[in-house]
Amino acid sequence: MLAHEGPLRLGIFLAVLGLMLLLQWGFPLRGDGRWSRRQLNNLGMVVVGTLVIRLVLPVLAVSWALDVSEQGWGLLPAIGLDGLPHVLAAIVLLDLAIYWQHRLFHHLPWLWRLHRVHHSDTAFDTTTGARFHPLELLLSLLIKLAVIAMIGAPALAVLVFEVLLSSGALFTHADFALPRRFDRWLRWLLVTPSMHRVHHSPQRHETDSNFGFHLSCWDRLFGSYRDSPQRPEAEMTIGLEHWRDANAQRLIALLGQPLQEPAAPARNDDHA
């Protein structure tokens, strides 16, 4: 399985993307399920990001985890974890790390400039989950490599986590609503689209909440959980105030957005 990491991850990504698009088309919450240029630009970002990472950083997470295991590095091997407990513990710790990474990208202005590209999407659908600036993806990978070495994550755990990361992002950004009772139950364990949609509000007190990617417990544990937006989900504003022009949603504009200044101060009551 590890030998076929690339095709496996791509196949699962495309399968989940197709499923989410079908669900959005059949049961849309806000949109009409139709394809748009905005969505193509969003998917273009993940293509560019993948190419940049391949060119700049030849060491990828799973191959790095194999090297780490051969060297015996990390906390988990040091305390004697092995087998399935080792894999599960590593996945949980990787998820915790990406929670704090996400908070850091909101807290530091120069990192927010990169992450802002994700939040400036004026709609919320499964392609938003692929809309990250290539430099953010590159920095995220470097952080992930460091965490893998520190905790001694096995290659299988890293592969599972990488698959969950990409497919989970497509799910948590999908434009459909789970049955309300099921959503209330599920979000005690996992981040749901309804829970994450709050995070894409332009209101700072809502944007700076619900940072989790997979496990919802981190937001509850660290005080960043917000149950629902002030406005109904189907009516709430999505995106950032100063990046709503159609030209700002073009692929070339998204790539250059971190270098641009908003028309007003970037961090007041609203994000910019």
UniProtKB/TrEMBL annotation:
GO terms classed as biological process: lipid biosynthetic process
UniProt keyword list: Membrane, Transmembrane, Transmembrane helix
Localization annotation: Membrane
InterPro entries (alphabetical): Fatty_acid_hydroxylase (IPR006694), Sterol_Desaturase_Related (IPR050307)
Superkingdom: Bacteria
Pfam families xrefs: FA_hydroxylase (PF04116)
Residues that span the membrane, as ranges: 6-23, 43-66, 78-100, 141-161
Occurrences of domain Fatty acid hydroxylase (ranges): 88-224
Main location group: membrane
Hydrolase listed as a keyword: no
GO cellular component labels: membrane
GO MF assignments: iron ion binding; oxidoreductase activity
PANTHER family in the record: STEROL DESATURASE (PTHR11863)
Protein name as catalogued: Sterol desaturase family protein
Provenance organism: Pseudomarimonas arenosa
